[in-house]
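Hey, I was hoping to borrow your eyes for a little while. I've been staring at a protein lately and its backbone has me curious. You're getting the sequence in one-letter code plus the fold written as tokens. Would you mind checking whether the tokens look sensible for this chain? Here's the protein in full, and shout if anything looks odd to you:
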Amino acid sequence: MKQKNVLFIMLDQLNYRCLGLMRHPDVRTPNIDALARDGVNFTNCYAQSPVCQPSRICFFTGQYQKKHRQFGFEGMVKPSAELMPLHFRKAGFSTGAFGKLHINSLGANVGFDVVSATLEEDQHRCTGPERWYPNYLKENSIEFPTAQCHGAAAGDAVPDDKPRGGKKANTDCEIDTDNYTACAGRCGVEYKHSIEKWTTDQALDFLEKDRDGSKPFFMWLTYDRPHAPHGVSSPYDKLYDPSKLTLLPYETAEEIAGKPYDYFQRLRKFFADDRKLRRVLAAYYAIITCIDQEIARVIDYLKENSLYDSTTIIFTSDHGDMAGMHRTFEKDRLSDQVIKIPMIIKPAGGSNLSCPAAYDGLIESIDLYPTLISLHGLDPVRDIDGTDFSAIFRGEDIPRKQAALCEQYSIKALIKDGWKLVYYLKQNHGMLFDLSDDPQERRNLYELKEYRSKRLELKEQLVSVLAGPWDEEDVSDIEDTIFSRGGRYSKVHHTKPGWDARPFYITEYRGMYVVEDCPRRRLLFYPLYGRECEFFRLGQGGSSRQLIDRGEDLDRFEEFIDALLDWQITSVTPIDVVAVQASELPGHYPAIDEVESFLKSAELNSKSAL
């Protein structure tokens, strides 16, 4: 076989359901579906972040956010792992990136030989002025940004909710300036100048003439959309009739009131009535089908030039979008609509599995990096969190991943065995969903007594995932050692709404967490290895310890686990972002009458707009 290549296709903000192969009732993606038939469709893949840049950095480092510490869009990171494209370039690959990069926090040396970019922030990465999309538009007398470019939609607006720069350029769209539904509809940009076609053209130029043909290639084809704005060039603007689209059932007022107040805040901010839902979905779906056709151009080139069989092709998205679920759009929340992503991999040389094949076990975006280097025989990379699952393509069984983690600053989501916990730092509320029975996450089970054991089980799993792996060792003397380290505890004022203010003292030593609640004289030994945890009541001066059955004092035990989680989250999340997010999160659930009043007024406004 020829040298094996890599084609890494990434969309921006694609909902995992919006593919023909996922049996979506409306969206048509024949070429992506065909790719899946030649590879493996991973149906239970989670991104590590619900927003663009942190998620992309997770892909390229193989690390959780808690390790590389990039939670937003500002600042620089120095990941301890070598970046994926740089690793492939050092291994002798010709590397190129085309489209939306959005990885500025990684610095200049990412590892690409050739770059063509669409974003303003990526201009400095372009290997020539002709490789920057705004320059291409200028040469063709088209004003930037168009209704296809980041910066033209209110979803990307500055705080006063005006489109960036006040521009509504090159569009015949119906314009909203109140929320994410801006710039959805027909765009006046001819398709030959569209952002999707330009991105594909740049990638094809790389394959045809810009790469070193004596080397295998690693190509990142990274489309800007279906992220807003949703300006659609003809003929794709007429592809989907808004009136004929399928809408999912809406949440009831009771279901909304059963979720934390920040969920209700986002619902109000991004709420769309039926008319907006249909209009934006028609544009969103059209862009997906348009990109499907562009991907076909690249795959056809590979086949026509005898490169298809020798190329590993990955199709995925950096994260998802609510895409009309619960009457909303956008991202920046830990719903499965946002953090669950498509992941299709067609390995070079084919798979030993009979195709089409699907794998329903948990995987994460950080797993792609170690899997790719294993498939291509490259040296392993140190200090990554991802798991190599390349054995699947050889038809071998692999251990099932226990849990997936997604982080949104100080809010953490854990997915395990069809259940999902969303944990809020220093809040007395959260979310718990049985995804196998409630995939739309309508019914929050967090406060229900019959699900308390499941809630606590997932919290304990979250402790383990946030801690990371530990080497097992002789720990027979660990308790005596910890007691001899008097005065070395970290003091944490662990206060939640409705709790008495009191300090907890927490330390970690050789894979053992110790949590002490001084006023009430209780102490928890919590090991990260196979040993059972121990919960004690202390005598005066700590001279004696009485073992407590955790089941007899479950309220207190869960408080200790919450204190430990809050300590962990604070230690792995930059303090400034913790403070900002905590100030923005009301610590309660919305009142049912407040929700009903909002839904009623929204319905009246919807009817008056018709």
In short: The first strand starts at residue 5 and ends at 12.
